[in-house]
Each structure stands twice: as structure tokens, then as C-alpha cells.
Amino acid sequence: MSQNGSLAVSVIIPTHNRAAKLRVTLEALAEQETPSGLGWEVVVVDNGSTDDTLEVFRAVAMRAPGRFRYVSEPSLGKSRALNAGLKVARGDVIALTDDDVSPAKDWVATAATVLDTWKVDGAGGPILAHWEAPAPPWVLGSRRLLDILAIMDYDKPAMLPVPAHMHHPQIWGGNMVYRRATLIGLGGFDPKLGPLGGRRFCGEDVDVVRRMLATGRGMAYDPALTVYHRVPSARLRRAYFRRVMWDMGEGDAFSTTTLPRGKSLFGVPVRRLIRVARSAMESALHTLQNRPGAFHDQLDCIHAAGFSWGQHRRAMRERRNGRPPRRAVSASAPAIRADR
Known about the structure:
The protein is of the alpha/beta class. It is built from 11 helices and 13 strands.
């Protein structure tokens, strides 16, 4: 620790009503293997939990007195929780992960050096699957579904951005490292983005990466910085992916800059409603015909319907607040995956 009280690394974990999952993550952090003299801390941000999150925190914190810190952020939203943790973090490096992720034993030690190794302001690495039940072939064989499950298994180092034709690697919220000063300089995380309570909205992490790159700051993907995403059996069902795509569509509607122009019905452009109806009929036909890719057609349709529902909710909210719906070109959608 330096004379001003700063540490090398602050690990920030936002959590909401997932005490059992959080316990496993904190235990993995308690077992980290770090060099002698490395100063680091774990900041758990309780985002309005009503379960026994605090009791779980206390039980694990007793194993390493002074290492774990607890912060309460009652206003729901992962981005709000991350920003609350950022405010109190003492580390020169901020390492971010989730409450259903188990970092490798050298994750903190790697986080402490990866930015200087690459001479960058931000970095990420693999998010490998820890299947809590055997994953079916239709999941394992689909890059899109693995993305939704937040599995990033690219095994080669790279500087971002990668060429436009390459889908990987990407840096996602389950495994991100930043210089604290840089992250604060960017304004932290956008509270309009990210999971909200039990809703699987996303994009807060991808948004920070985009802003980093847009301002000329370097971002690296390093396979040595590894975590393991614990995937339960409930997420290996088609119903889960359908629900995720609805939530993501709705979240995208709230995160776009503005609503598009044109005639609308209940706040949703009529042209969009027509497209969604056509997509639903085509998807149903492909499913009945058992066509290859029919399930992905369903997901596209559900995302579009969720987006329309989000547009409706957003328009109604703005009218209640006395503001007319804003109109202009919408922002591009974030990478699709669910990390909660």
C-alpha cells in the first residue's frame, strides 16, 4: 500500500439477491494466489438485495480480515452498483467480475500487471464455461447461444478493435480490468444500460469498451486473464434463451438514443409492428416445418417483439413525465449476451 492509502487492485462485484452464487465467487477470491506485498481488495456492492447477501459476505470476509469491503447501493441497476463501487475503490487498477463467476487462482495477480504488460488502459480475457449440467449439442454448436451465455473462449491475444469481419475476441463484464483514473475519466458506467434487478438488460460493459476505443485508449485481450462462468442447467433450456432475448430487446429500446420517426401506435412505429407480425408468422412456419435455424428465427422475432414492447413502455413513460417521445436515429445495438 502506498502512503496515500491506495492499493494495486480493487475487485468490484455487484450483486442482487444471489447470495448462494456470490458465496462461491467470494470463496474463489479468498483463495487467490498473489505475490507477497501485492495490495488488493474486494468491494462487494449489494444492489438492493433482500436475501442473506450480507450474511454471506460477513462469513467469507472473516477468512481474510480487511480484504473484503461491503457497499450498499439500494437504487437498482448494475451500472449504478458498479459506479458505487468505483467511488470507494482504492485500487489503481479496477478488476470487474460477476457474482456467478469464479476467477482463476492467478486472476488478481494477472490483473495487477496486464495493463502495464500491454501498455493499455483496459483489458479483458476468456470467460470459460463451467457447466453445472452437461450442455446439449444445440448450445455447444451455436456461437450465438454461447455469446448469450457470456462464454468468451477465444484463446489468442489481440489488441482491440479486431477487424470488422472477426466476431472475436470481445471484452465483457465478467472479466474486465481498467486503470481507475481512466474509468473515472470516462464517467464510469451509463446507468441507462445494464441489468436492472432481475431483468437481463445488457450493454453497460460494451458501452465502456466503445467509449475507451473512441477516445483513443488502448484495449487488449489477454488469454492469461481467465475466469469461469458457472452456467446452471436452467440456462440450458430454450425457454431461457427466449426470455433473455425478450429482455434484451426491451433493454435495447430503452438504451437507444431516440425513437425513430413515423406514424406510431401506442408509441411503437406502425412499420415496426408490421415487420414484427410478418416475422412472427415466418418464424412459426419455419418451426412447423422444422427448418434448420428455426430456433434462431424465433429468437430474432422475440428480440424484435421485446424491442417494440420497450418502445411502448418508453413512450408511455415519457408521456407521463410530460415529455414527447424523442425522435432521431437510434444508437447501434450492443453485442448480444446475458451476464446475469
